[in-house]
Amino acid sequence: MTTSISTTDTVTRDALAVLQPGFTGTTAPDWVLRRVDEGLASVALFGRNIRTAEQVTALTAQLRAGREDLLVAIDEEGGDVTRLEVRTGSSFPGNLALGHVDDLGLTRDVARELGRRLAECGVNLNWAPSADVNSNPGNPIIGVRSFGADTELVARHTAAYIEGLQSSGVAACTKHFPGHGDTAIDSHHAMPRIDVDLETLHARELVPFRAAIAAGSKCVMSAHILLPALDPDRPATVSPQILTGLLRQEMGYDGLIVTDAVEMQAIAATYGIEQGSVLAIAAGADALCVGGGLEDDGTVLRLRDALVRAVHSGELAEERLADAAARVRALASWTQAARGTGTASGAAAQEGTAPGSDIGLVAARRAVLVTGSAAPLTTPAYVAAFTSASNIAVGDETPWGVAAELARLVPGTRTGTYSGETEDPAAAVLRAAGDRPLVVVVRDVHRHAWMGEALDALVARRPGTVVVEMGVPQAAPRGALHIATHGAARVCGLAAAEVIVHGTDGRTA
């Protein structure tokens, strides 16, 4: 139920300005256009809103018809997390692949080209990069989304990514502050907790964020995680000690702070989305991400009215809400100015993107790590994909693997999918493969005991098996040929397929 309030007063417009909601459909619903007219300053695009680049360009133009400075945000990390290419897989490898190559120029070029494509579609805020240090290899939500487990490596590539992305006129949003890498729980489902001391946090988690601030990141996204060393009671998203005390005052960050999605269970199940949103703005957040799961006008009105009521009751200072809204508008002004320089669209951006639009595949090829050897594949293979449940950030719409690319290169190649629910997966694979060459594709085999057991059984029976690891290559290599792609983007699958078809050619580790 919404409060009966004016839709034109300053507080209401400010309350709308701090929301970054999603919606359903590939054209803008009437309710979104109406809220933009009333003060909504941002919208978010998800995979459900996207069909083609041309359609997204038309959508963003429609959204901006009533407000030229509208922020259009997207969660386009590249790699495993893609919205622009949700149905095909990304043309860019993700952070772990870039961190493995460890070429700052390459990271900068990949981010610049990704930013150019976003800008051409009318997107001007990207909820990327992830600056999390993946110090816990069992992390169920970060993994290949991190540049790696080495703090300094993560810091320097975070900075390079920001520089590349923002040179295309797209604002970077560095996440998930103050660091989601040492968690064993996905905050989409519950409240993660990091029990380390202040010294460890400053030496590990916070280092990449300091680098991001120094690189000029226009936005930082908070994490729904509890860090008792910083605040024993409240997770970062709703903690004044963390957002205002640490990020603003101690670290000197003056850009936009946006929350991770407030409908995630770490917030929704603890505070409810209305109270959680009020607490977040009061704590120092400037914008509220919502819409991955709740994408309706009613949600926007609930959050708007909760903020207005909190101001009227004195729970939320009117000045704090006004400051938050002003930061949103300031970022929108920056994106307009950046777009006006000509670096964000057309030939000027393409000219500045070296070595061109194939940079994603170039990077994916460089990220491949080969162990062992094998002759070129000359006859159709059988590809067994070992799958587990996708985390929510990645989603289950985006295809991954090597089967499609391998079938294109070697027609007649067949594939099958196996999970932990499959009875005796090794035996099932062998029956289906027959005498075909065997390729097994896995993702984070170190996190799934059944995968490791099935792989061992397969390799024992078929020593010539090729294994492709498309997650974090934490487990020891198995198979005659082991290919670690450091991510499951479409271009990573293509790079692995090329190795299989052409043979190792001396490319062993």
Give the CA-CA distance, first to last residue.
Answer: 61 Å
Number of strands: 14
Uncertain stretches of 5 or more adjacent residues: 342-356
**Mean pLDDT across all residues, rounded?**
91
- The neighbouring-strand order within the major sheet is 2-3-4-5-6-7
Strand fraction? 5-15%
What form results from the Cα inertia axes? Answer: globular
Oligomer designation? single chain
Output the radius of gyration: 23 Å
Structural class: alpha/beta
- SS summary, helix count: 19
Plain-language structure description:
The chain is of the alpha/beta class and about 500 residues long. Helices cover about 40% and strands about 10% of the residues. It has helices spanning about 10-15, 30-40, 55-65, 95-100, 105-120, 150-165, 200-205, 205-215, 240-250, 265-270, 275-285, 295-315, 320-340, 345-350, 360-365, 405-410, 425-435, 450-460, 490-500, and strands spanning about 20, 40-45, 70-75, 125, 170-175, 220, 255-260, 290, 370, 380-385, 415-420, 440, 465-470, 480-485. The protein is globular.
